[in-house]
Amino acid sequence: MRLLLVTLLITFGLSFHASAQEAQSLTAQQTYDLVQKQGDQILFVDVRDPVEIMFIGFTDAVDTNIPFKLADRSAFLSDKGRFAMNTNPDFAAGVEQALKDKGLSKDALIVTMCRSGSSRGKPSADYLLEHGFSNVKYIDHGFQGSGAKEGKKAGMRIVNGWQNDGLPWSMKLNPEKIYQP
Protein backbone atom coordinates (compact mmCIF):
# COMPACT_ATOMS: atom_id res chain seq x y z
CA MET A 1 0.00 0.00 0.00
CA ARG A 2 2.83 2.38 0.90
CA LEU A 3 4.48 1.71 -2.48
CA LEU A 4 1.21 2.49 -4.27
CA LEU A 5 0.82 5.74 -2.35
CA VAL A 6 4.40 6.80 -3.13
CA THR A 7 3.92 5.90 -6.81
CA LEU A 8 0.72 7.97 -6.97
CA LEU A 9 2.37 10.94 -5.29
CA ILE A 10 5.32 10.80 -7.66
CA THR A 11 3.04 10.46 -10.68
CA PHE A 12 0.81 13.32 -9.53
CA GLY A 13 3.86 15.44 -8.76
CA LEU A 14 5.36 14.86 -12.21
CA SER A 15 2.11 15.57 -14.03
CA PHE A 16 1.55 18.68 -11.92
CA HIS A 17 5.09 19.85 -12.71
CA ALA A 18 4.54 19.28 -16.44
CA SER A 19 1.28 21.23 -16.48
CA ALA A 20 2.94 24.08 -14.57
CA GLN A 21 5.46 24.39 -17.41
CA GLU A 22 3.20 26.40 -19.69
CA ALA A 23 4.47 29.85 -20.66
CA GLN A 24 2.59 32.90 -19.46
CA SER A 25 1.98 36.01 -21.54
CA LEU A 26 2.98 39.63 -21.17
CA THR A 27 1.58 42.58 -23.07
CA ALA A 28 3.84 44.47 -25.42
CA GLN A 29 3.82 47.43 -23.02
CA GLN A 30 4.75 45.26 -20.04
CA THR A 31 7.66 43.85 -22.03
CA TYR A 32 8.83 47.30 -23.12
CA ASP A 33 8.69 48.50 -19.51
CA LEU A 34 10.72 45.46 -18.37
CA VAL A 35 13.32 46.10 -21.06
CA GLN A 36 13.60 49.73 -19.98
CA LYS A 37 13.93 48.91 -16.26
CA GLN A 38 15.70 45.55 -16.23
CA GLY A 39 17.08 45.10 -19.74
CA ASP A 40 20.40 43.76 -18.53
CA GLN A 41 18.62 41.02 -16.54
CA ILE A 42 16.36 39.61 -19.28
CA LEU A 43 16.69 38.25 -22.80
CA PHE A 44 14.16 39.61 -25.30
CA VAL A 45 14.06 37.46 -28.45
CA ASP A 46 12.24 38.13 -31.73
CA VAL A 47 11.43 34.61 -32.97
CA ARG A 48 10.22 35.55 -36.47
CA ASP A 49 11.90 34.50 -39.71
CA PRO A 50 14.21 37.38 -40.72
CA VAL A 51 12.54 37.69 -44.14
CA GLU A 52 9.22 38.29 -42.37
CA ILE A 53 10.86 40.97 -40.23
CA MET A 54 12.23 42.61 -43.36
CA PHE A 55 8.69 43.15 -44.68
CA ILE A 56 6.80 43.84 -41.42
CA GLY A 57 9.25 45.78 -39.26
CA PHE A 58 11.61 45.43 -36.33
CA THR A 59 12.18 46.86 -32.89
CA ASP A 60 15.69 47.49 -31.69
CA ALA A 61 14.39 46.87 -28.15
CA VAL A 62 14.99 43.13 -28.71
CA ASP A 63 18.33 41.66 -27.80
CA THR A 64 18.41 39.33 -30.77
CA ASN A 65 16.43 37.63 -33.53
CA ILE A 66 16.54 33.84 -33.31
CA PRO A 67 13.79 32.31 -35.47
CA PHE A 68 11.75 29.54 -33.88
CA LYS A 69 10.37 28.51 -37.27
CA LEU A 70 12.06 29.06 -40.60
CA ALA A 71 10.20 29.25 -43.89
CA ASP A 72 11.07 26.32 -46.14
CA ARG A 73 10.99 27.90 -49.58
CA SER A 74 11.24 24.45 -51.18
CA ALA A 75 7.95 23.27 -49.64
CA PHE A 76 4.91 25.29 -50.72
CA LEU A 77 1.68 24.17 -49.04
CA SER A 78 -0.93 24.73 -51.76
CA ASP A 79 -3.88 24.01 -49.47
CA LYS A 80 -2.73 26.71 -47.02
CA GLY A 81 -1.33 29.14 -49.58
CA ARG A 82 2.03 29.45 -47.84
CA PHE A 83 5.45 27.88 -47.42
CA ALA A 84 6.03 25.24 -44.76
CA MET A 85 7.49 26.51 -41.51
CA ASN A 86 9.97 24.14 -39.88
CA THR A 87 11.35 24.35 -36.36
CA ASN A 88 14.83 25.82 -36.32
CA PRO A 89 17.02 22.96 -35.02
CA ASP A 90 19.41 25.52 -33.51
CA PHE A 91 16.74 27.54 -31.68
CA ALA A 92 17.37 26.39 -28.08
CA ALA A 93 21.16 26.43 -28.56
CA GLY A 94 20.93 29.94 -30.03
CA VAL A 95 18.92 31.19 -27.07
CA GLU A 96 21.35 29.57 -24.64
CA GLN A 97 24.28 31.25 -26.42
CA ALA A 98 22.49 34.63 -26.37
CA LEU A 99 22.01 34.24 -22.61
CA LYS A 100 25.70 33.43 -22.16
CA ASP A 101 26.70 36.39 -24.33
CA LYS A 102 24.66 38.60 -22.02
CA GLY A 103 26.10 37.00 -18.87
CA LEU A 104 22.79 35.35 -17.94
CA SER A 105 21.87 31.81 -16.92
CA LYS A 106 19.07 29.56 -18.19
CA ASP A 107 17.05 30.77 -15.17
CA ALA A 108 16.94 34.38 -16.40
CA LEU A 109 13.68 35.75 -17.78
CA ILE A 110 13.36 35.18 -21.53
CA VAL A 111 10.59 36.91 -23.47
CA THR A 112 9.74 35.75 -26.99
CA MET A 113 7.85 37.72 -29.63
CA CYS A 114 6.45 36.64 -32.99
CA ARG A 115 4.02 38.37 -35.35
CA SER A 116 0.77 37.60 -33.52
CA GLY A 117 1.79 35.83 -30.31
CA SER A 118 -0.05 32.60 -30.94
CA SER A 119 1.63 30.62 -33.70
CA ARG A 120 5.27 31.07 -32.63
CA GLY A 121 5.39 33.32 -29.56
CA LYS A 122 3.71 30.97 -27.11
CA PRO A 123 4.93 27.76 -28.79
CA SER A 124 8.53 29.04 -28.75
CA ALA A 125 8.25 29.93 -25.06
CA ASP A 126 6.75 26.51 -24.25
CA TYR A 127 9.51 24.86 -26.32
CA LEU A 128 12.18 26.62 -24.28
CA LEU A 129 10.51 25.54 -21.03
CA GLU A 130 10.54 21.96 -22.29
CA HIS A 131 14.27 22.31 -23.05
CA GLY A 132 15.42 23.32 -19.58
CA PHE A 133 14.89 27.08 -19.51
CA SER A 134 12.92 27.91 -16.37
CA ASN A 135 11.56 31.45 -16.77
CA VAL A 136 10.06 32.06 -20.21
CA LYS A 137 7.17 34.30 -21.24
CA TYR A 138 5.85 35.53 -24.58
CA ILE A 139 4.21 38.72 -25.85
CA ASP A 140 0.49 38.22 -26.28
CA HIS A 141 -0.49 39.53 -29.74
CA GLY A 142 3.18 39.76 -30.74
CA PHE A 143 4.71 42.42 -32.93
CA GLN A 144 1.91 43.12 -35.37
CA GLY A 145 -1.18 42.37 -33.29
CA SER A 146 -4.59 41.01 -34.18
CA GLY A 147 -6.83 41.66 -37.14
CA ALA A 148 -9.81 43.96 -36.82
CA LYS A 149 -13.08 42.01 -36.63
CA GLU A 150 -15.24 44.45 -38.60
CA GLY A 151 -15.30 47.69 -40.51
CA LYS A 152 -13.35 48.88 -43.53
CA LYS A 153 -10.14 47.50 -42.05
CA ALA A 154 -11.53 44.08 -41.10
CA GLY A 155 -8.75 41.50 -41.18
CA MET A 156 -5.99 44.10 -41.07
CA ARG A 157 -3.64 43.81 -38.09
CA ILE A 158 -4.49 47.10 -36.45
CA VAL A 159 -5.49 45.87 -32.98
CA ASN A 160 -3.00 45.49 -30.08
CA GLY A 161 0.57 44.16 -30.41
CA TRP A 162 3.90 46.00 -30.34
CA GLN A 163 3.27 48.21 -33.40
CA ASN A 164 -0.29 49.17 -32.48
CA ASP A 165 0.65 49.99 -28.88
CA GLY A 166 2.85 52.78 -30.26
CA LEU A 167 6.09 51.20 -29.09
CA PRO A 168 9.34 51.94 -30.95
CA TRP A 169 9.87 50.11 -34.23
CA SER A 170 11.02 50.78 -37.76
CA MET A 171 11.51 49.10 -41.11
CA LYS A 172 15.28 49.32 -40.65
CA LEU A 173 16.88 46.10 -39.45
CA ASN A 174 19.82 46.10 -37.06
CA PRO A 175 22.44 43.82 -38.69
CA GLU A 176 23.97 43.10 -35.27
CA LYS A 177 20.68 41.65 -33.99
CA ILE A 178 19.13 40.00 -37.04
CA TYR A 179 19.56 36.25 -37.55
CA GLN A 180 22.17 35.48 -40.18
CA PRO A 181 22.93 31.73 -40.35
From TrEMBL:
Residues 38-155 form the Rhodanese domain. InterPro entries: Rhodanese-like_dom (IPR001763), Rhodanese-like_dom_sf (IPR036873). Residues 1-20 form the signal peptide. Keywords: Signal. SUPFAM superfamilies: Rhodanese/Cell cycle control phosphatase. It holds the Pfam family Rhodanese. It comes from the Bacteria. This is Rhodanese-like domain-containing protein. It comes from Marinobacter antarcticus. The lineage of its organism: Bacteria, Pseudomonadati, Pseudomonadota, Gammaproteobacteria, Pseudomonadales.
